[in-house]
Amino acid sequence: MKRDEQDNTLRDMMKIHGLRYSKPREAILRFFARRDRHISAEDLYLALKKEGKNLSLSTVYLNLSVLENAGLIREFAGVNGEALYDSNISPHYHLQCKNCGDIYDLPVLTTEGMPLAKLLKEHAETTSGWQVDEPGLNLRGLCSSCQAVNDAEANRK
Question: What is the rounded distance in angstroms from the CA atom of residue 59 to the CA atom of residue 76?
Fold first, then answer.
C-alpha cells in the first residue's frame, strides 16, 4: 500500500473509532501496521525516536491509552507484569516465555463451538456470582529455545 493510501486508511480508521487525527496517533498506528508486534510504551518510544519521530514518552503513553480504549490496539501484561501493546486485536491468547520474554499469539480455542475464554467467563459468573468484564488467558512457560538451553545445561551436570 502506498503511503498516501495508508495515510487515508489510518485517518479513516481513527474517524470510524471516534478519534480525531493527530500525528502521534498516526506514527503509532503506522508503526503497528508494519507487522504484528508486542511492545512496551518505552520500547515503542525508543523505536519511534530512532525513526526520527519527535514524541515525548508521555505522548506515547497517552496515545497508546487512547488507541487501546478505541479498540485499535490491545494492552496486556507481560511476563514481568509490564504493560505491553499488541497490534493484533483479533481474539487470541498469548504464550509467554518466562525466561526470554518471547510472546507467541495462539489462536482462540473453542469447546463445543464456544471460545474458551467465554466458557471460562460464564463458568466464573455462574459459580461465583461475579460479573466478569473481560475474560483473558495468558499462558506462561518456556519457549522451545529456552527449553533446549535448559536441557543442554541439565545434560552437562
Answer: 19
Could you tell me the three cell numbers for 101?
520474554
Domains, the chain, with CATH or none = 3-85 (1.10.10.10), 90-156 (3.30.1490.190)
H-helix segments, the chain: 3-16, 23-34, 41-50, 57-69, 116-128, 144-156
Joined together, the cell numbers standing for residue 49 give 525516536
DSSP element (H, E) containing 75: strand 74-77
pLDDT tens digits, one per residue of 82-97: 999 999 998 888 999 9
Look over the chain and give the mean of its residue pLDDT values, rounded to a whole number: 91
Statement: residue 3 has pLDDT above 70: no
Contact status, residue 43 vs residue 67, Cβ threshold 8 Å: no
- Average pLDDT (10-28) is 94
Per the CB < 8 A criterion, the answer to whether 146 and 96 are in contact is no
Model confidence at 1: pLDDT above 70: no
The DSSP element (H or E) to which 138 belongs, if any, is strand 138-141
Query: Do the strands 92-97 and 138-141 form a parallel or antiparallel pair, or are they unpaired?
Result: parallel
72 burial level (CB within 10 Å; 0-12, 13-18, 19+): buried
